[in-house]
Amino acid sequence: MEQNVLTFGFMSIPQIVLDVPTLKLSLSIVGGLLLIAMVRILFLLRTNNRLRENTAKMEKQVLIQHQEILSVRQDSNAWRGELQRMFDAFRAEFSKRLAESEQRYQDIQQRCETAASPAVPAVAEPPAPEAPAPVASEEEKAVLPVPALTIS
């Protein structure tokens, strides 16, 4: 009987004899590996489907959060604009009141200056005897409070 031997340079490996029990063993090993691979593919498909569904849910959540962020930004911009308008209105009102107050002060100052400077008489009069200075009474005019600002 001839012996089948594979030779690789300095080594020789005897070939496997192809009889029925050996073929059944190798077929069952290959079949088992194929079955394990098929089961693994099914598990991977199932996991892939779950991950795809989770990805779709996450994308929807991202879109919703993005829309919420945009709406919050619009609300804050509207609120900021409203506050800016109110501030501008207050500033304009107080600027107007300050101008009016300064104008009243200038008018009063001019009246005081015109009242303090006497008209030049044509003939010089002799100075009048000095009268004693009046003592201020405790019942002087009460100082009126400044009217409150009306803000609408």
Can you characterise this structure?
The protein has 152 residues and is mainly alpha-helical. It has a domain at 18-115. 64% of the residues lie in helices and 5% in strands. It is built from 1 helix and 2 strands. The chain has a two-stranded antiparallel sheet with strand order 1-2. The longest helix has 97 residues, at 20-116. The protein is rod-shaped and about 160 Å long. The termini are far apart. The model has no long low-confidence stretch (mean pLDDT 82).
Strand content: 5-15%
Number of helices: 1
Strand-pairing-aware structural class: mainly alpha
Helix content: 55-70%
The end-to-end distance, rounded to whole angstroms, is 118 Å
Overall form: rod-shaped
Oligomer: single chain
In round numbers, the mean pLDDT is 82
The low-confidence runs, each spanning 5 or more residues with pLDDT under 50, are none
Number of strands: 2
- Over the alpha carbons, how many angstroms does the gyration radius reach? 53 Å
Order of helices and strands: EEH
Largest sheet report: 2 strands, antiparallel
* Lateral arrangement of strands in the main beta sheet: 1-2
